[in-house]
Write a structure and sequence with these properties.
This protein is mainly beta. It is 9% helix and 32% strand. The chain starts with a strand and ends with a helix.
Length: 653
Amino acid sequence: MSGPRGNSFFLGNSSGVNFSIILSPRDAETGKLQLANCSGSKRAGDWNLDVTPGVNISKVTVSLTRTLELCLPNATECCPSPLCMVETLQVLACRGSVMLAQLLIQAEIFANSSFTGNVSENATIIPNQAFKPLGSCPCNLTAGACDVRCCCDLECTPDLQQLFSGSCFTGVFGGDVNPPYDQLCSSQSMEYTPEWFPFLCVQSSLDNTPFLGYFYHGSISTPKVPSFKIPPQTSPGKPFTGYREGDPIITEEDEYFTVPQQSMAGQCVGNAPVAYLHDFDVKCLTNLESYKEGLPHDMRINSGTADFIQQNVVYRAITDRGKFITESENLLAAEVLCQNVTFAEHYKFIWKDKNIEQVNVTVFHGSLCDGEILTQRFTVEFLSLNSTNGEELFENPGYQVGKPVRAANLNASDPLGSLNIWQPAGRGLCASATYRPVLFGVDSYSGCILEVDINEDCSLLRGNVTEKLNALIQATHIGKRDNSSYSDRNDWLEIIRLDPLSSNVSTGGLKGICPDIPANLNIHIIFAKVGAVQGIPQQQILAVQISYSTVLWQFQCGLGCKNTLSFLPITASVQFIEVPAQPPLPVSRYQKLYAEFDCSRNEVCWPQLLYPLTRFYTGEPYSQSLAKGLFLAFLVLLAAIMSNPWFSKLWNR
């Protein structure tokens, strides 16, 4: 402890626990601390002990009450020397006469002082990292204070080192920056030493160690603090060239326009930027304690042409709080604290080309009380300026990620169709599950649970499961593009259906077993990027295939087999597969031969076999690499000569 205040925590129930602090002088003969007892108080000498109780954890604060100023002539109650005090404290937690916990504190506190001398302008000389480690004691992280368990820290006095002498940091971090390495002749760290080790081992000083490379070629970089600030433009006065799909929307202060959105982990992020032409609809849980207001609605937005537009905000009051309040604790009316907060925000961006023409915001306010959990809703929708009656006329005929896939039933009088997957609710049963549309570019996997009786007929079960899976696909065709017209049959693709195979497997009269149940529906959608409209990719669906995967259903018997119902999970998966818009050109014979010598495609690179002998190799001086290469060639030539039969005959003569 090097300051006038220190904090620690007591884990557990603190009711009935007595906390005390005592000074622990050392015995003059043995040097050991005196034994502590539970008869102390919350004040000892110049030290006070404060305890802040909590739920299963209590904060313990030790503070110094005296001043830390250096003594002036004829002054008292001050520090006579820069090292003001060195004391050993013990904090005890007792229940009656039984000691529950003990904290040992070594306090070494210096007096407060202000520097009045001249500042030296001599720069610190940093040794060459290639020959001497820059950090001889890497665990010394705190300047002017002793780092616990860092035995190479010169600021640790012998008394402090005695507290942790048995648990010092080891290895390079603990100060052993030049440990013996395996290739050293005097090293015995290798468990298995080959016979040729004494011939090829290294005889060198520890000052010339390969561990120096851990500290060599260090680079200095400016820390980058992540923020939602936009870097200034390199050329002053350069006009804003407009937004492209996915670009973050910019405010007048050159910051990102943010609306709460869901992260990949499913949690809500309050400062997530809004991307151009990307719609979303999210719900976030909050309470009165953690509620935070978003960006002010009077903030102006960059339209895309360096002009700024004001948001058109309409405020409305929530009449039915039950749709947003999902949980409420039973509190007395006199104790409830309420506050007017935002329940929902709906943003509509009117766009044209690469610019934003108008922003309309509808904000719903309501009263949120302490103990209630609020489900906030935030929606962002981009509408084209050419939209009529709220229905958007798509300037880009292709699909956009997150838009529903268009389906049609061209064989019926009403061509409107649907392509859905399940959205289970409650217990996840198929009887109570609702539907949600398949979104373009979003791979999905959903399912529900079907209740099956032990005496269920297998043929009827297969028909029931197939019927529920087919209910998801109320269509015969899928639109190639997002603006496919019902009157033009060429705008639609017929769904390829691979019906489940009929089962002829007999169960032999066994109950509770049904093979070949088509419990999994697989929807594969193949698409390609066929162009771009104003920089936005135009994506088109090329084919849609539906297939089934079968499973073996077997009745699961619970405790005592009293229940005659079992559960069969049925699932539906959607996978989007992107293919090239045009088939790739066939690979020529030359390209096939060249691929064998392409170093970027193969682990073995034959063209670089003699790379160390070229001028491009900079690992060592060229003269040394050339000498080593010639010596290696001499050894290869010598081995070839000695392996020849005539050499053995000549040697025998």
